[in-house]
Amino acid sequence: MHEMTDNLKNSVMAYCAKIGADPLLIQGAGGNVSWKENGTLWVKASGTWLAEALEKDIFVPVDLILMNKALDERDFTVLPIVSDDSKLRPSIETQLHALMPHKIVVHVHSVVALAHLVCDGWQENFQVLLDGAIPWTAVGYKKPGAELAEAVYSALERKKEAKVVFLENHGVVIGGENIDDIQETISILTNSLSSTLREPTNSLVKAIYLDDNLQYTPIPDSKLHTLATNVDFYSHLQTCWALYPDHIVFLGDSPNVYESIDQFYEYSSVNTDLPELIFIRDAGVFIKDSFNRAKLAQLRCYYDVISRINEFSKINVLTQSQIGDLLNWDAEKYRMRIAN
Q: What is the CA radius of gyration of the chain?
């Protein structure tokens, strides 16, 4: 039986529900939170939603002493040992939470940060934008899990006072001693890194319905139609799709784009296995009923990120090898099954 300080637990749970409901910080089952207490690391379970922290049991206790011992010996493949009979799996990024020395650790896929983290020169830009407001360190893109944990370990060795670790093409890890500390850091990051929002000028005028036999409906988020009806965003679909892990895990390695409705009808006439999500140029974005809320959250995140990227920036996408590593990873397949 694990004892927890109610005040700490309650404050963490309430904060999880708050940020979990903010799509500019957390998208669906993405992101994770932890706190450390009495040799135990309480960490969000893989595939669960932070937004549901007050409604469901989404945290699992991990033996922090054993994990720290392995990490101190540079064993980054160490698996978290759940110290009760929970059937949930700890987050696939549990090592990051153990590596951070802070009592509370929050990992978010902040949209305002991602709009920089997927572009060339982001570290130099952050030096200027943050201007010493908070101690931070950074790592290049690494596959979540052992590779990322080793990179973060080395980064924290170089800058032990860091409260923030920026993860290229991925997100942000934030450490603090209490929730107020975490919130202050997130406010600094949000205010310092916010960029001009490029709202597209042309959007879907009216919903276009496809052949009912194909079982597609227009996506319910009207802004997402601009991914197909705005020339700049449509171009991004074709050249800058694979921006960060969660996008690939939930939405696949490439978008299904069609230059016209006729081209899509031609494709559907010779293919029976049709995708859940399609983009038809100048017509809109269409989905099947199986396209769940977790996937919708990730597609909205993609829109929110690219609409904040400076039009002159060079965008870096994940390589085919990096994409393959994510899609063939059993831990991510499990998370996909749990999240919905």
A: 21
Measured on CA atoms in the order 326, 65, 49, 228, is the torsion positive or negative? negative
- Measured from the Cβ of residue 46, the count of other Cβ atoms closer than 10 Å reads 23
- The CA angle 246-249-255, to the nearest 5 degrees, is 100
3-state secondary structure of 318: coil
> Rounded to whole angstroms, how far apart are CA atoms 257 and 275?
10
Counting Cα atoms < 13 Å in the Cβ hemisphere of 126 gives 26
pTM above 0.90, yes or no: yes
pLDDT greater than 80 at residue 4: no
Strand-pair category, 59-63 with 171-176: unpaired
**In the chain, where are the structural domains located?**
1-193, 208-307+310-339
For residue 259, give Cα distances in angstroms to 203, 228, 236, 251, 262.
16, 9, 14, 20, 8
Q: List, in sequence order, every beta strand (DSSP E) within 177-247.
A: 217-218
Cα 25 to Cα 48: distance, rounded to the nearest angstrom: 15
226-254 residue pLDDT tens: 999 999 999 999 999 999 999 999 999 99
Read off the amino acid at residue 302. Y
What are φ and ψ of residue 160, in 5° steps? Answer: -65, -25
Distance separating alpha carbons of residues 31 and 22, to the nearest angstrom: 12
**CATH code of the domain made up of 1-193:** 3.40.225.10
Nearest to 257 by CA among 232, 292, 282, 288: 282
With beta carbons less than 8 A apart as the criterion, state whether 74 and 146 touch. Answer: no
